[in-house]
Amino acid sequence: MTVTQAAKADTMQAPFYADAEAAEAFGRRLLVAHGLSEQDAATVARCLVRADLRGVDTHGLQTLPHYLERVRRGLINPRPNLKVERVTPMVGALDGQDAFGFLVATKAMEEAIEMAGEFGVGIVSARRSTHFGMAANYALQAMDLGFIGIVFTNASKAMPPWGGREGLLGTSPIAVAAPGGKEMPFDLDMSPAVAARGKIRRAARRGQPIPLGYALDAKGRQTTDPNVALDGGTVQPIGGPKGSALAMLMDVMGGVISGSAFGGEVRNHFEEYDKPQNVGHFIMAMKPDLFVSRDEYGKRMDTLVQRVHACPTAEGFDEVIMPGERERRLEMQHRRTGVPFHAKEVALMQEAAAKAGLPPLPVSTAPLG
Questions:
Q1: What share of the chain is helix, strand, coil (3-state, %, to 5)?
Q2: Exposure check for the chain: N or C terminus, fewer CB within 10 A?
Q3: pTM more than 0.85
Q4: Looking at the 3D structure of the chain, how many domains does it have?
């Protein structure tokens, strides 16, 4: 499908579908063409497509053309040599060297897992990183190997502290994943904002309004216009002062202690092109059976899940689900039907491929299976 065809198809709201493996291969080719090694390109592409599979399309493959522009401008280092410096036997520090945040966070979690395997807990603080996409990628990285994964990061200013009007805090995500027993695991990935800025950018890109309560305009008034929200406006914290405090906590754990930027100094990777971002991350892996046996841990987690699922539903609800359960269902569905993309997103990706002299992403107007 050509760029022109994708743009014309925008009048139709039906999505296009791409096979997950084909989407990863497409991403790898583009990243290698921009200087990444095959291994690093595979890591970044996998993280992007995993976000799409789980329904977190604000952090998915459609963002790749933007990342590549930052590579071309010298704001993302495509060839880092990432090494974790041990501070203590179970704590490490990582200079991200302005690399893709996907690579920095993956490396940090790898090292944290290695330390946790020996000492029960491993922590890595990363500085000089960049936007790392879906935070769940790295918590799941730990969980898939049997560890509890905890991931904090800070981000560029987008949200005022409670009672303020100007953006100072980031929509900095928190991700925690804990393995289950025979039942499903616990899998949390949340922002302290009512909605991530990515959702607002997506609405602007697609020409759609945003729900009331997502954002304020530059004068501190509620708005449903995503372009007004992005033009000097701010997003809103969940739970008022509670969400504001959580965003500050992410700045403490991700920024203050790591040596990275903090307090509104992290560069906006969509809008600021004068310097690298200098994002900070806090990455932790922990054995789940430090205090009880592994068998008892699994049984206790199963009991928690069963009790959650058995809770009587409130009016308007058909079921009670665990954190991450919706995303797991979507991933299973999208691996079968293909990853859905909006026509404008497809057009941007095909344009990026054409500029690099690469074949387009194979897409279909109907689900694949």
A1: 40, 15, 40
A2: C
A3: yes
A4: 2
